[in-house]
Fold this sequence. Notes:
Distance between the termini: 52 Å
Mean pLDDT: 93
Low-confidence stretches: 1-11
CATH architecture of the largest domain: Alpha-Beta Complex
Oligomer: single chain
Strand order of the largest sheet: 10-9-8-11
Amino acid sequence: MDTPHTSIRPATPATSLLARYEAVRSASLALAAPLSAEDCQAQSMPDASPVKWHLAHTTWFFETFLLQPRLPGYTVFHPRYGFLFNSYYNAIGERHPRPQRGLLTRPPLQDVLAYRAHVDEAMARLIPRLDGDRDMEALVELGLHHEQQHQELILTDIKHLLSCNALRPAYVGTPRPCAVVSTARQEWVDHPGGIVQVGHDGDGFCFDNETPLHQVLLRPFRLARRPVTQGEYLAFMDDGGYRRPELWLSLGWDIVRTQGWEAPLYWEYLDETWQAFTLHGMEAIDPDAPVTHISYFEADAYARWAGARLPKEAEWEQIARGHPLEPQANFVETGELHPRAAPAGNDEKAPLQLYGDIWEWTASPYEPYPGFAPPPGAVGEYNGKFMCNQYVLRGGSCATPRSHIRATYRNFFPPDARWQFSGIRLACDA
């Protein structure tokens, strides 16, 4: 097996790196805690994975890329786990088919938890030995951000699974607080355009797809202050949005017809009102909260209906670079697990909810930046080979860990994906 490398090399004291490792690994277990073994076993669609598989796969990453090559005397927990819990790393070897992960009733959940404990104990011995080895410390950090990606997937995948149950069971039973807010008006943030810097500058961790830093020429543009709300999206629906082919890209319109889309994923018309399945169970639609669980095709159709467009990812990044993460941003740590309304009364020149709440579709296809080259070895398969038939999303969601996001972060999904917390922020030419 080739020794993988990453392009970002943070110098991290071993004690703080170990503390971060323990915190991230504990957070995964906390997300699984409300679930039964049966909940953790099932797979609701090929794009989703069982919670048990997420817990094992993130553990396999550390065992495969760090413990086996670098910890003398390390004993592999089980010789076939590499086949079961490899995701898409062809350089590592063959793997269990992704659509059939829900068939893995063995190993049971308790064995997967024992696997995690085995690897965690070994990592606690390895990390202090890495002090000064910047390549390997960077690989630990990559593994932690990889696990944070899977923490978000644990929530989105279990939400899809529970939504398939006629009981509409809640992931967490505590209802969300119903704060009464006055929604911020939809205003615009202007940008003069020009030659701008896009991408990560190498200060701290980033994924390889955020590099290299490069220049982009932008025309003057305007970005909406806040995301599109559920009430605004309802107006699109009431105006026949799902019945008007002139609003849709051809492939999107084909999917609308073949899949029977008439509302965002998880919306149901019950008792003469729209309701939505959430991680807290069924709830009435909040017209002031951002619309979520929509595809790129729906976002694009709404933007066309509204007389606007979706932002390019470079446009989104330029606005975000001037506005750091807000202390009140709605990430997974708030426990709300659902987008919240943008409050009125803020500085009307500042954008709202750039980070957290919903991933925001951009008009940009997911492609390499000029000069991009994936790292050598198996870890080079992490991002680069997916740069086809995907669109970029920015900003993070209510299911994203706060320490995982930044202005340059590039998420990506196929244009018909809807099970993520994805929504809309409009843009237009100035």
